[in-house]
Amino acid sequence: MRKRGLLFLAACVMAAGVLAGCSSNREAAGSTTQEAETTTEAETTTESETTTEAEMTAEAKATAEAESESESSPAAAEETSSEEASAEEGNAEEEVSAEGAEGKTLVVYFSATGNTERVAGVIAEATGGDLFELEPADPYTDEDLNYNDDNSRVSQEHADESLRDVELVSATVEGFDEYETVFVGYPVWWGIAAWPVNTFIEANDFTGKTVIPFCTSSSSGLGESGELLAELAGTGDWQEGMRFRSSVSEEDVTAWVESLGL
Ligand SMILES: Cc1cc2nc3c(=O)[nH]c(=O)nc-3n(C[C@H](O)[C@H](O)[C@H](O)COP(=O)(O)O)c2cc1C
């Protein structure tokens, strides 16, 4: 009986030994799996990060290259500056040809009471032309201009054509040859151009110039006033011209000038 008890105890010790060995193996196997999983994860992360970094580097490089090409590459800079230069050249050419086509403009006028003077100013402004006032050496006073008085200066001049040669302070304009276009302005007196203008017309050569008459009046139209001046001049390419009412607006005068297409 005592011998059987010893055998049982020995068997138990052996069984416990076997069980302990199995458990430690299982633990070791678990740790290997975890290690393997960690390695794979680490490798994957590193790989993906490396890829992204590589892609970003390539992208940054491409961007940098593109920027450097457009900004600092001598060829690109040359291209840009030559493009800018040719655009500037184009504008300069346009300006020159526009100026050349228009030439210089002169606005000559006689005005007894200021209406024609105002219109002349608007024309000069709109054309960028020079103004020149025809001033009688003996200026007209209000009494002189009273056409209701048969004895007034204008009435006498109207009645006797020989009295219409009105001397001007100056009948010639400095650099007249340089003007390509000449506007000639006057008030209408008894249906024709106020005669102080005649002295200027007779004193100048309009050859090669475009001449554009304009006038102001209370109610009369341009009539034959422009044609009579053209006859008196004998030279120049005279245009039909325009009559404005005495109180014409600046806008209407400007619109007319623009319609001429100078
Ligand atoms: C002597 C004289 C004659 C005029 N004859 C006419 C005329 O025949 N028809 C007309 O519509 N206006 C006539 N007027 C009015 C002027 O033509 C008009 O007031 C004009 O705008 C005046 O221009 P000014 O201010 O530049 O002198 C006459 C004015 C004067 C002083």
UniProtKB/TrEMBL annotation:
Signal peptide: 1-20
PROSITE patterns documented for this protein: FLAVODOXIN, FLAVODOXIN_LIKE, PROKAR_LIPOPROTEIN
GO molecular function, one term: electron transfer activity
Bias (Acidic residues) ranges: 38-52, 80-97
UniProt KW Signal keyword: yes
Organism phylogeny: Bacteria, Bacillati, Bacillota, Clostridia, Lachnospirales
PANTHER family in alphabetical order: EXPORTED PROTEIN-RELATED, FLAVODOXIN-LIKE DOMAIN-CONTAINING PROTEIN
Keyword Transferase: no
Chain intervals for the UniProt region annotation (Disordered): 26-100
Database matches in InterPro entries: Flavodoxin/NO_synth, Flavodoxin_CS, Flavoprotein-like_sf
Feature: compositional bias, Low complexity: 27-37, 53-79
Protein name: Flavodoxin
Sorted UniProt keywords: Signal
Residue ranges of domain Flavodoxin-like in the record: 105-262
